[in-house]
Amino acid sequence: MQSNREKWECKETPSKTGGGLQKEFYFSLLPNDIKARIFQHQHQVPPELLPQGELDIDRLKGRTERYNRASEKDRCRAHARNEILKAIKDFCAQKGFGQTRGEKVFILFYQDKKAPGINEDIYQIEKNISVATIRRWRSAFKEEGLAGLLPNYRSTQGQLKAITPDIQIFIISHIKQNPRIRPSHLFKIISKTFKPGPSRRSIYRFVDKWKLENPELWAMIEDPQRWKNNFMAAAGDMAAGIDYFCHTWEADSTPADIITADGKRCTIVGIIDVYTRKAMLFVAPTSKSTAIAACMRKGLIAWGVPGVIRRDNGKDYTSKHIDSIVISLGIETPLLPKHAPEKKPFIERFFGTLSVGLEELLPGYCGHSVAERQSIRARETWSTKIMTPGAIIEIPQTMAELQGFCDQWLKIYENSEHSGINGKTPYQRFKESSYFPPKVRDERVLDILLAPMSKPRRILKKGIAIDGPFYWADELMEYMGQRVQCRRDLENAGLVYVFKIKDGSFICKATNEPLSDQRLEDYLIAKKQHQKSIKEKVKALDSLSLGNRNALQIMMEDVVTNKQYNNIVPLQFEADTPAIREAKKAVCEPDNAPLSDPLQEVPLPKCRNSNPINPAFVDYKTDEDLDRDFNEIVEEANKKKALDLRIGRFL
Questions:
Q1: Residue 595: what pLDDT?
Q2: Is 459 exposed, middle or buried (0-12, 13-18, 19+ CB in 10 A)?
Q3: Could you give the strand order of the β-sheet that contains 265-273, starting from the edge strand earlier in sequence?
């Protein structure tokens, strides 16, 4: 037997069937051909799948699974390639050609479709072959067997061998730190950190493979918003438990994708009823509490008072003005987490429908994203260059016109079928409601509740001061000095409603006659514009200064221009008091000298030079210079005296 002849390593164990001992061989120590036969018998593997080189059972299992998963077309192509390799081998053996010469001659016959040992079907499967292709097939068949000849097959053996676990962690950490880092930069960093490092191409393959195998993790690293939209679990229904009209509203604001006639992007405030999907829209310059209150006013008048409002967490929605409205009307406002639009999905989805269904069709549309805005801007720029005279130009609409378009579009929206409410329209859903909320019938009462609430004010002798102007009513006399709560009328800037702070009971209406003819919003805008113009005028005055010099610099110019007279010092005698003389003694006496009688006159020591030295001068005069100057002065004085005597005698 071959096992005895080659002395295979084994161990003898008692036979389970009885009758002596049986030999058990170690599979890993068996020859490759024996391993292949055993594997082929156990897994029913075709002989063509067995590689010609060293046998690896794990890799062989993988190749077998891949071959079994391949389509019939791919299997036929792999067998055709194998037949070509066999035909080339037989051709070289019959003709006595070497491998290279035999391959080149065989290719010439193959191109003419006259190659020996090749059926007509193979020409249809593999139309062209080359020396490089033949050698690649031969190498793949030797390493992987018939599975290596499958189309689009690439062996991963050794492909990531250079990417060790340490390098993999290093690459992933850099991708986490900077998701936009290029593989070429990673190659440079790795080359300086790891010796030896992988090739540039290996790093490219690893990065691409990691992104494909970890799409959710890569989305979270690159763009958390994309992960949230594509991978975040969306189980549950935010409309669950809402079974009648005005049970729950959702409110939010969004910048309009429209440039209005004033060249600005306005804001659209929206409210949607979750049960029916009916909606309200209000167009405003910006999202502020007064605009939100105006949109709520439209919904409260048309629909009624809701039980719950899911609102945004912005400062405009959580302002004291909006809080006072929901408290006064008894509306619940659950606290929603920040940056969680999925907690109010219906208003978010409604804004998407509005953007696609209306805004894209209006003149002045500026796009939903930065990329779209750039393309629109480029298209408009190019159109102006090639525009022919007399071409029609679309003029953007005003905010009032945009409000009209929104109101008309809402009628179309409410009569359109919605998949979220079982294919029904919001109007049909409204008629099916089993309950309808109460309404505030008197609009003036509603206006008072929706009016902006100022902070508590104290009643002064001139009345109630709100942002400068005073408001007065005779009923305020008995509340003089007390603090009250005021609500400003939206339609009349000169009217406020005064309430008690303690119980909220109504006191009176206070007025300011000069402001009675203005709307509150118009008054506030005019006031803000006036303040802005004053600031601009004050800023303009800065340019009127004289060369950026201040008053002190101008006054000190005389000192600078008359600097030639700075060295003239008036004659001043030295101060002399008993205390000064005693202090001089302390300065001139040595430290160990005995204290003298303060009443005894002590001659002052002579100083070497009593003239102070001005450090501004570079050259200093010695004692000889001073004596010479003194003699010159005496001579000049004697000459002058002699001249005066002569003149006196003459006279």
A1: 47
A2: buried
A3: 279-284, 265-273, 248-259, 308-310
